[in-house]
Design a protein that fits this description.
Radius of gyration: 16 Å
Largest sheet: 4 strands, antiparallel
Order of helices and strands: EEEEEEEEEEEEEEEE
Shape: globular
Structural class: mainly beta
Strand content: over 45%
Distance between the termini: 22 Å
Number of strands: 16
Number of helices: 0
């Protein structure tokens, strides 16, 4: 659901926890340091108690839309990908950023401008891989390093390397290349 947060428990009961402020943007989610986080346009929301709607913990500039969340195993910090123009297919000009965040402060720890949209993060064996435009890349500590172009990915939203296009088994990374 693109506008509400729901909870499904073990007894097959679905509870409505609340409504996102902005319904026309992606709402990436992450469990970090035993808390639940969700992106809501330029606001990062955190829930510290079970069955509660997340409240604002970090407010970015209004021109930053949160696209993806992850964890940097090297620093232990949360990773946040932002874009300046809502564009889920990666075709419009945008200012793209990679942010490092501790999960509690009013400001991010570090911010780096990157050339393309980061659609998803996935960590395997201490390396955080990113779906970066139509490419597979990794985080090098100060930005993004290129690994390979995804051969079958176009600017169609269903083909782009979002978080759900990544999987791993042991130390092997799997990435969906197109459909």
């Amino acid at each position: 659901c693109k506008e509400r947060i729901k909870k499904w428990d073990n007894s097959n009961v679905i509870s409505d926890l609340g409504v996102f402020t902005t319904t026309n943007v992606p709402h990436p989610m992450l469990v970090y340091e035993n808390n639940f986080y969700a992106g809501d346009s330029n606001v990062l929301r955190r829930a510290i108690a079970v069955s509660t709607m997340p409240t604002a913990i970090l407010t970015l500039d209004v021109n930053q839309i949160i696209m993806a969340l992850g964890v940097d195993p090297g620093t232990g910090l949360m990773l946040i990908s932002t874009i300046s123009t809502l564009d889920t297919s990666g075709t419009l000009p945008s200012i793209n950023k990679l942010l490092w965040y501790d999960g509690v402060s009013e400001k991010v720890t570090k911010s780096v401008i990157v050339e393309d949209t980061i659609f998803g993060f996935h960590t395997v064996g201490g390396v955080t891989y990113v779906g970066y435009g139509k490419n597979l890349c990794y985080i090098n500590g100060s930005g993004i390093s290129f690994l390979r172009k995804l051969k079958n990915v176009t600017n169609v939203q269903a083909e782009l390397p979002y978080k759900h296009h990544f999987a791993s088994f042991a130390n092997t990374l799997y990435v969906l290349d197109g459909l």
